[in-house]
Predict the 3D structure of the following.
Amino acid sequence: MDFFDSEIFKWVIMPFIIFFARILDVSLGTTRIILVSKGKKYLASLIGFFEVTVWLLVAGRVIQSVDNALYVIAYAGGFAMGNFVGIMLEEKLAIGTISVRLITNKDPEEFINGLRLSGFGVTTVPAYGKTGQAYVIYSIMQRKKYPKYEELAENFDSKAFIAIEDIKNVKEGYFQDIDSKFSNMSFPLRKSK
């Protein structure tokens, strides 16, 4: 008897293959959608190729054996888990550029100096809110740099209002690369591709 025709393969191994292949397929799909939204068309296209290849192989196997409830459950479970894994993967990759707007009632001079010393570009605007004088502090940064910004903001004013938005493209301005050995150098922004 052939191993691929055995009961253990049909009822144990194949459902696991379907489950994990579906996790891979959906995780790739989630990542592809995020890359498309950030304008990364070439990488998104490459990922899409592998996503569809895996999907065709898995979906084909499940459709051939639609009477096997275990395959259907493994397929659906892999889809659900793939969404979860894809979102976690996207959070870890931290792809893209964000705009951070912090609003506070506290005098931000020390905070702004700390941000600049840490390599963040900052624009501040005096404002007036419900409780009186306020300050709006804008920064544009790579998403992977946000945890450092968040730490500084928390130390400055744990009750500050912070809004974060994804940015597809940026043009002009200055951006400091705090990961390089040249961390004291500022580089002009170029339009992203």
Remarks:
- The chain has five helices and six strands.
- The longest strand covers residues 132-142.
- Residues 7-37 form the longest helix (31 residues).
